[in-house]
């Protein structure tokens, strides 16, 4: 390690060796007892806690800052106008200056007492150390409902397509690594969804080849207080991440989600058309117009909630965004019809293939334009 200071410590302060990032959203009743537990397991080890809170309505950030005012090894990153577990973890780790960085959930589901072992595995040479529920003495029953357990098992199997069987718990949100490795992979990490570990491991393997992973088993516990933020939307984002990883980033997660939403729009369109034309007796042109508007609107809402959850438009910006989305999609339809007609009329393909080419054209067009126009970064 190089340092610009000859003496990297000030009286009464030692530089932390490890930063423990704690992402929080509405974890007011969990955060202080968690910090207390961390202090107990790391007695004598210079470490710090970085709470990354997305402006929780329950005031978690204020509370964390009160603690930070009393304890030098605690600080809080208070993010405004943003949401997301992965992006919170990335931001917390990026703010660390320690040799090692770790992440632990605020809700006490992860067993903090294995952290010192995780740290010593990393000091002993492991590139990434993962707290696992699915190997050795590990277990997950206590912390999961039946439904969540099934979901977790499916997600684990899917992830193992990417990471191989050697990693027993690729969905773990509890891990530790050298900050230097984090820095090496961070530019390519997805900021969407929950699955940051999987993303780090795949990226690190691609960049460095054969990284060493150590696993430390623990028993997943029930949530201490508050509620889980896992949702069907987050599960869909995860599926998107897997496919995007399998395609080696050629298809970004946001594009896959955008396409998925587009496909759902076809159903919305047909259902509305049937309803307006068949049941309400509108004439065809009007029914088609209404169906188009309804489908564009549901597509916009779904993209706003799912594909661009991290840039979600609210209030006035929701409506200006919706208008710009209508506008872009109208051009997309124009592009769709022109491309399909050119292909068909030049006898390059039959009507079916030409139709698909047109649809792909409009998805790519709508995706690339709304990405910069409607959901500006
Ligand atoms: N800053 C921030 N922003 N934190 C968030 C957000 C967010 O949008 N969403 C969730 N968190 C925090 C929670 O406050 C909690 O500390 C932690 O992230 C995990 O969230 P939970 O809502 O408790 O998720 P979970 O228990 O369903 O999922 C956990 O277990 C999974 C394994 O089954 C997570 O650790 C996942 O990463 C893990 O895969
Ligand atoms: Mn949890």
Low-confidence stretches: none
Rounded to the nearest angstrom, the radius of gyration is 24 Å
As for the number of domains, it is 2
**For the largest beta sheet, what order do the strands appear in spatially?**
5-4-3-6-8-7-9
Mean pLDDT: 90
Shape: elongated
Proportion of strand residues: 5-15%
Largest sheet: 7 strands, mixed
CATH architecture field of the largest domain:
Alpha-Beta Complex
Tell me the CATH superfamily of the largest domain. Spore Coat Polysaccharide Biosynthesis Protein SpsA, Chain A
- The helix-strand sequence is EEEHEHEHEHEHEHHEHHHHH
- Strand segment count: 9
The class by helix and strand makeup works out as: alpha/beta
Distance between the termini: 35 Å
- The percentage helix is 40-55%
Can you tag this structure with a few keywords?
377 residues, Spore Coat Polysaccharide Biosynthesis Protein SpsA, Chain A, 2 domains, 11% strand, binds guanosine-5'-diphosphate-alpha-D-mannose, binds manganese (II) ion
Describe, in plain words, how this protein is organized in 3D.
This protein is an alpha/beta fold and 377 residues long. It has helices at 28-41, 60-70, 85-94, 115-123, 146-163, 179-185, 196-208, 232-246, 253-279, 284-307, 316-345, 351-373, and strands at residues 9-10, 13-14, 18-24, 47-53, 74-78, 100-103, 128-132, 175-178, 213-217. The longest helix is centred in the last third of the chain and has 30 residues, at 316-345. 40% of the residues are buried. Residues 23-25, 27, 52-54, 83-85, 88, 105-107, 109, 152, 171, 173, 194, 228-230 line the site of guanosine-5'-diphosphate-alpha-D-mannose.
């Amino acid at each position: 390690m190089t340092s610009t200071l000859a003496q990297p410590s000030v009286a009464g302060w030692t530089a932390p060796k490890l930063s423990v990032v704690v992402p929080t959203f509405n974890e007011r009743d969990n955060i202080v007892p968690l910090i207390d537990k961390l202090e107990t397991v790391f007695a004598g080890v210079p470490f710090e806690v970085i709470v990354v809170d997305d402006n929780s309505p329950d005031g978690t950030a204020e509370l964390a800052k009160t603690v930070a005012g009393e304890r030098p090894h605690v600080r809080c990153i208070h993010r405004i106008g943003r949401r997301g577990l992965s992006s919170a973890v990335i931001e917390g780790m990026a703010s660390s200056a320690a040799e090692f960085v770790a992440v632990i959930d605020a809700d006490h589901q992860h067993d903090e007492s294995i952290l010192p072992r995780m740290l010593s595995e990393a000091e002993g040479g492991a590139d990434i150390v993962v707290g696992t529920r699915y190997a050795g003495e590990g277990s997950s029953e206590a912390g999961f409902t039946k439904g969540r357990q099934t979901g977790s098992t499916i997600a684990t199997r899917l992830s193992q397509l990417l990471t191989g069987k050697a990693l027993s718990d690729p969905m773990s949100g509890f891990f530790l690594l050298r900050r230097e490795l984090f820095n090496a992979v961070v530019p390519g990490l997805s900021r969407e969804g929950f699955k940051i570990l999987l993303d780090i491991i795949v990226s690190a393997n691609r960049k460095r080849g054969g990284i060493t992973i150590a696993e430390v088993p623990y028993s997943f516990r029930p949530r201490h207080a508050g509620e889980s933020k896992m949702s069907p939307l987050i599960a869909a984002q995860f599926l998107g991440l897997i496919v995007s990883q399998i395609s080696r980033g050629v298809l970004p997660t946001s594009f896959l989600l955008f396409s998925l939403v587009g496909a759902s729009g076809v159903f919305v369109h047909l259902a509305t058309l049937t309803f307006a034309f068949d049941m309400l007796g509108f004439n065809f042109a009007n029914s088609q117009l209404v169906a188009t508007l309804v489908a564009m609107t549901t597509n916009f809402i779904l993209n706003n909630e799912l594909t661009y959850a991290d840039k979600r438009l609210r209030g006035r910006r929701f409506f200006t965004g919706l208008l710009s989305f209508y506008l872009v999609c109208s051009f997309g339809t124009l592009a769709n019809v022109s491309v399909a007609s050119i292909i068909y009329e030049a006898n390059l393909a039959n009507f079916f293939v030409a139709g698909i080419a047109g649809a792909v054209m409009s998805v790519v067009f709508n995706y690339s334009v709304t990405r910069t126009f409607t959901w500006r970064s």
